[in-house]
Amino acid sequence: MTSYSFLRPWLFCLDPESAHNIALGSMDRANALGLLKHFVPPPVLDPRQFCGITVKNPVGLAAGLDKDGKHIDALARLGFGFLEIGTVTPLPQSGNPKPRMFRLTEAQAIINRMGFNNDGVDACVSRVKQSQYWQSGGIIGMNIGKNAGTPIERAADDYVIAMKKVYEVASYITVNISSPNTKNLRALQGETMLRALLGSIDAARTELSDQYGLRKPLFLKIAPDLDAADITLIADLLLEFTIDAVIATNTTIERTAVSHLNHGHETGGLSGAPVRLLSNQVIASLKEHLGDRIPIIGVGGILSGEDAVEKITAGASLVQLYSGLIYRGPELIRECALALQKKG
User: Distance between CA atoms of 70 and 127, rounded to whole angstroms?
Assistant: First the structure.
């Protein structure tokens, strides 16, 4: 029995958001005391090149688990090849009312409607700079979004503001247009709005590249709830605006697999095992359209090493974990990294 197997029943007696905060806080304290390393094996060393970045191994942390960069050093100790922090917005915001996170244990799933709760981009950037992981050259992606109070017609302004703030510290920048928990956000995946948004971001990146003398990779995170026409459109725009990579996928609003379960009808984004096939289908479709021109990071429903291999087989180059960690614990990171190392 792993240490997490022992702790999980106790954590699952708490409401999910409280359990999340307690677990991360305890991990921080254990790391600060030098204890965490005794419970976690050394990371799997399987370096991969991705968009000009060298990651330690192909298993990363997905955005959402550490929204504010409060737990970077402890999370890095768990064996991830890279971390993605956020989503951060230009201004602090409290997010949606509680309760806003629900476990569907029978389905190994989570529904959340957090609503980009975060302390604002300035606070997050400050924490990244203070982390030993960043100071030692660790790979940190910064996931950016718009404030809930910003009209959707002005969304590009928020993304540009956040992009300028994170550019100095980010190994790469992810534009999150796919959370279902900010009103109208997914409308940005439509042609007119997405073209305008990517145009603004591309212009800002050109300016920032000149200012810093360095072009940072830019990724786009998309939803699993897209039809064939949507995916074709997004693939074409990724190429047109020279986006460096695409992250597929965010959470789903589909409820067919969980509608019979307690909390199955809660609003928000569904993650975990039920999104695995949807995510794989989007990855495969993107790969068909993009070939090797734009790489893919696969995320959604990874609860085993075999699930991670499925993502790579579908067309992804790297994977990210979040909900699987809630159900499996840190051992999932090593299991996935070893499975992908074996696959080659």
Answer: 7
**Rg, the chain, Cα only:** 19
Region label for 112, one of left (φ > 0), alpha (ψ between -120 and 50) or beta (otherwise): beta
Average pLDDT of span 186-208: 94
> Looking at the 3D structure of the chain, how many domains does it have?
1
Question: Are the C-beta atoms of 9 and 329 separated by less than 8 Å?
Answer: no
Residue 213: give the domain boundaries: 3-343
Output the domain CATH number for residue 331. Answer: 3.20.20.70
Cα 248 from Cα 275, distance rounded (Å): 11
Q: Which of 303, 259, 258, 261 is nearest to 279 (CA)?
A: 303
Query: pLDDT tens digits for 155-176?
Result: 999 999 999 999 999 999 999 9
Three-class DSSP category at 221:
strand
The identity of residue 181, as a single letter, is N
Phi-psi region of 268 (alpha: psi -120 to 50; beta: other; left: phi over 0): left
d(CA 133, CA 66): 14
Contact in structure between 283 and 317 (CB atoms under 8 Å): no
Looking at the DSSP bridge assignments, the partners of residue 84 are: 141
Please tell me the least confidently modeled range out of 178-182, 224-228, 231-235.
178-182
Q: Cα separation of 194 and 65, whole Å?
A: 26
Amino acid at 43: P
* Amino acid residing at 242: T
179 is catalytic: yes
Q: Which of 131, 171, 179, 279 is catalytic?
A: 179
Residue 49 Cα distances to 52, 78, 172, 317, angstroms: 6, 21, 13, 9
**pLDDT number for residue 1:** 46
CB of 319 within 8 A of CB of 298? Answer: yes
Beta carbons of 320 and 83 less than 8 angstroms apart: no
- Please, are residues 119 and 92 in contact by the beta-carbon 8 Å criterion? yes
Hey, what are 89's tokens?
């917005």
